[in-house]
């Protein structure tokens, strides 16, 4: 069968502060499995569906029409990566426009006018809030979780014209309100995934690499950690499942040799845990003589001198530390299973081995008070004064995370409707309660942000609610004009500097 896979996630602004559009790692993996089963597969990046002027879809009609003229699909798959659109809505009073589902629904709507092929949605955002996509975009099918086994099973059933068998993670709009009862699909043996079809990603260098991009590579799935905001435990499970190291290296070699790229991003939830596996990956890179550079996200609890040395030797050029707080009380309430001493030790190890890093913190989540935030700021002032630190104001609560049960028990979330219905009913007040941000202080957000801005003073510290503004052309959230990123910086935060230290709170 002809199968068309669409990546709906797109970053059009060069100074987003998030890096370039990530290449579709999930679709690459899925395409490899489908092709080995004899299907003709294409991967394409969608561009026009996110533009403000695309309500009537003039550019998208041309874009997709040209595509279908070359390759008419029997099945269309759309990957949905991010829940939030991170862009200025055309109508700020229309709640759904703040969500990627609104823009991804345009893809479904346009395909409906051009062909009758069944449409399947999946990906991380779909798996976290499937009801929102099913009710707004109305695909024929959706897959919650990992699709490398479930989509081929669906395709086989459609090709045979038979009644659909039981397929892990499969859902339709009729079951949207019961999605919590559907267990996410998981590939238990990742050896079956094999090597991704990197050659099928159209226009790879221009879309995802030139100007500072990275090739995404996954070495394992699952996460045994207990961070209260994270959805990985539900979607991927609490136990690690490892890819074959030979497959990981073969995929990197394929990208390097066919695409001429040498910068990679290990997209595991935490690359360095467990340490033995991370060391094995580093050793394999060296043995294969890949001569590459790479980045990853790491937890402070699993950084040793031996691992740092191995990472450096194998080409590591940057890491993102994810303690999420630098207050012991908040680390405990966030379920981080670490303390500030371990965070400080991890920082010291990375400095000894001259590995650049940035740090991400969540401000105002469960257990956070004025006092604990000052503790975090004091820690950052002592250990990270001149480093890039990203402060995210508020913890986004999703219904498949531990933070949801906590927020409900505290009365912070008391909605009687499912989250998708709140969004589609335009209930701003109820949806706002899912952004956990100092709810017990009973102060307007702007006052709290003014206060946080007054203590968030590092020259390379970013406060999301202050330092990101809509880009005038694309509408995407981008860094304020006085915050510059040197062109082509890898990773982007290494080139961050301020041209004007006078900053205005709020937008």
Count up the helices.
19
Helix share of residues?
25-40%
In the CATH hierarchy, the architecture of the largest domain is Alpha-Beta Horseshoe
Reading side by side through the largest sheet, how are the strands ordered?
7-10-11-12-13-14-17
Alpha-beta content class:
alpha/beta
**From the structure provided, what is the oligomeric state, counting identical versus distinct chains?**
single chain
Unreliable parts: 502-507
What is the straight-line distance between the termini? 50 Å
Structural domain count: 2
Largest sheet: 7 strands, parallel
Mean pLDDT: 93
CATH topology of the largest domain: pyruvate-formate lyase- activating enzyme
Choose one word for the global shape.
Answer: globular
- For CATH, the homologous superfamily of the largest domain is named as tm_1862 like domain
**Rg from alpha-carbon coordinates:** 22 Å
Number of strands: 21
Name of the CATH first level of the largest domain = Alpha Beta
Strand content: 15-25%
Description of the structure:
There is one protein chain. With 507 residues, this protein is an alpha/beta fold. The chain folds into 2 domains: 2-188, Cobalamin-binding domain (Rossmann fold, 3-Layer(aba) Sandwich); 211-394 and 437-498, tm_1862 like domain (pyruvate-formate lyase- activating enzyme), CATH 3.80.30. Helices cover 35% and strands 16% of the residues. The protein contains 19 helices and 21 strands. The strands form 6 sheets. Strands 7-10-11-12-13-14-17 form a 7-stranded parallel sheet. A 6-stranded mixed sheet has the order 2-1-3-4-5-6, with helices on both faces. Strands 8-9 form a two-stranded antiparallel ribbon. Helix 2 crosses helix 3 (100-114) and helix 10 runs parallel beside helix 11 (305-313). The radius of gyration is 22 Å and the shape is globular. Mean pLDDT is 93; it is low at 502-507.
């Amino acid at each position: 069968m002809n199968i068309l896979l669409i990546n709906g996630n797109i970053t059009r602004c060069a100074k987003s502060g998030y890096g370039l559009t990530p290449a579709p790692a999930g679709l690459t993996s899925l395409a490899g499995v489908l092709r080995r089963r004899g299907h003709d597969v294409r991967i394409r990046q969608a561009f026009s569906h996110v533009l403000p002027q695309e309500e009537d879809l003039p550019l998208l009609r041309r874009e997709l029409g040209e595509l279908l003229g070359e390759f008419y699909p029997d099945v269309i798959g759309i990957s949905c990566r991010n829940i939030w659109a991170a862009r200025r809505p055309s109508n700020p009073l229309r709640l759904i426009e703040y969500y990627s589902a609104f823009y991804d629904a345009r893809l479904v709507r346009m395909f409906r006018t051009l062909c009758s092929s069944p449409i399947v949605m999946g990906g991380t955002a779909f798996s976290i809030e499937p009801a929102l996509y099913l009710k707004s975009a109305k695909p024929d099918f959706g897959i919650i979780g990992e699709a490398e086994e479930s989509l081929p099973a669906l395709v086989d059933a459609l090709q045979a014209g038979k009644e659909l068998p039981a397929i892990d993670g499969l859902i339709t709009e009729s079951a949207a309100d019961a999605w919590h009862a559907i267990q996410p699909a998981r590939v238990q043996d990742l050896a079956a995934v094999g090597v991704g079809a990197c050659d099928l990603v159209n226009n790879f260098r221009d879309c995802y690499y030139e100007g500072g991009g990275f090739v995404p590579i996954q070495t394992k799935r699952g996460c045994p950690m207990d961070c209260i905001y994270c959805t990985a435990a539900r979607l991927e499970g609490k136990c690690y499942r490892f890819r074959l190291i030979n497959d990981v290296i073969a995929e990197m070699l394929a990208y390097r040799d066919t695409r001429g790229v040498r910068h990679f991003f290990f997209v595991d939830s935490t690359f360095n845990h467990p340490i033995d596996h991370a060391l094995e990956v580093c050793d394999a890179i060296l043995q294969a003589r890949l001569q590459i550079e790479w980045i990853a996200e790491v937890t402070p609890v699993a950084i040793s001198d031996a691992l740092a040395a191995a990472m450096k030797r194998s080409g590591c050029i940057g890491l993102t530390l994810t303690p999420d707080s630098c207050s012991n009380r908040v680390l405990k309430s966030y379920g981080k299973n670490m303390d500030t001493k371990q965070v400080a030790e991890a920082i010291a190890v990375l400095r000894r081995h001259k590995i650049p890093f940035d740090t991400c913190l969540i401000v105002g989540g469960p257990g956070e008070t004025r006092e604990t935030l000052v503790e975090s700021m004091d820690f950052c002032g002592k250990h990270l004064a001149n480093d890039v630190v990203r402060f995210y104001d508020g913890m986004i609560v999703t219904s498949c995370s531990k933070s949801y049960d906590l927020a409900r028990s505290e009365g912070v979330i008391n909605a009687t409707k499912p989250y998708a219905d709140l969004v589609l009913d335009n209930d701003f007040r109820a949806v706002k309660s899912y952004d956990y941000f100092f709810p017990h202080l009973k102060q307007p957000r702007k006052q709290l942000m003014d206060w946080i801005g007054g203590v968030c003073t590092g020259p390379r510290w970013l406060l999301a609610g202050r330092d990101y503004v809509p880009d005038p052309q694309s509408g995407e959230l981008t860094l304020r004009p006085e915050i510059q990123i040197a062109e082509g910086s890898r990773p982007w935060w290494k080139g961050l500097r301020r041209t004007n230290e006078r900053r205005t709170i709020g937008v």
